[in-house]
Amino acid sequence: MSEAGGAQESPHLTHAEVTRLWAKFRAGDVVHCPRDGIGMALAVDGAAKAYRLVCTQCGLASAWFGTTPAGIVLRSAPATVAPSGDE
Ligand SMILES: [Zn+2]
User: Fold this and answer.
1) What is the whole-number distance in angstroms between the Cα of residue 84 and the centre of ligand 1?
2) For residues 33 and 39, is the Cβ–Cβ distance under 8 A?
3) For residue 40, what are the CA distances in angstroms to 11, 59, 69, 87?
4) 81 C-alpha vs ligand 1 centroid, how far in Å?
5) DSSP 20-47
6) pLDDT tens, 32-78?
7) Domain-by-domain residue ranges, the chain?
8) By CB distance 3.0 to 4.6 Å, which of 29, 32, 47, 64 could disulfide with 24?
């Protein structure tokens, strides 16, 4: 077994983390950055109906995500996702 001791960190939050944080946010609770505990801000892309949680201190951010009745859906790519769309 080679355990690096958590040397590699994902630059983004996992789906599970975003789900948990989003649930807190919707409950009216303050969402804290899992890395440093600082409050996170919610960015909203009104056109894409997407949301994103961003730490105001260290810059840790979730991927953009949309909300569905079944939960959140991460959007790996931003708005420029349709290669064959002229409109
Ligand atoms: Zn942070």
Assistant:
1) 37
2) yes
3) 15, 9, 23, 34
4) 28
5) HHHHHHHTTPPPB-TTT-PBEEEEEETT
6) 998 999 999 999 999 999 999 999 999 999 999 999 999 999 986 54
7) 15-75
8) 29
- Rounded to the nearest angstrom, the distance between the alpha carbon of 54 and the centre of ligand 1 is 8
CA 58 to chain centre: 14
Q: Which helix (H) or strand (E) holds 16?
A: helix 15-26
**Radius of gyration, alpha carbons of the chain:** 15
40 alpha carbon to ligand 1 midpoint, in Å? 7
pTM tops 0.85: no
Number of helices and strands in the chain (H, E): 1, 4
Question: Cβ contacts of residue 74 below 8 Å, gap of 6+?
Answer: 15, 18, 62, 63, 64, 65
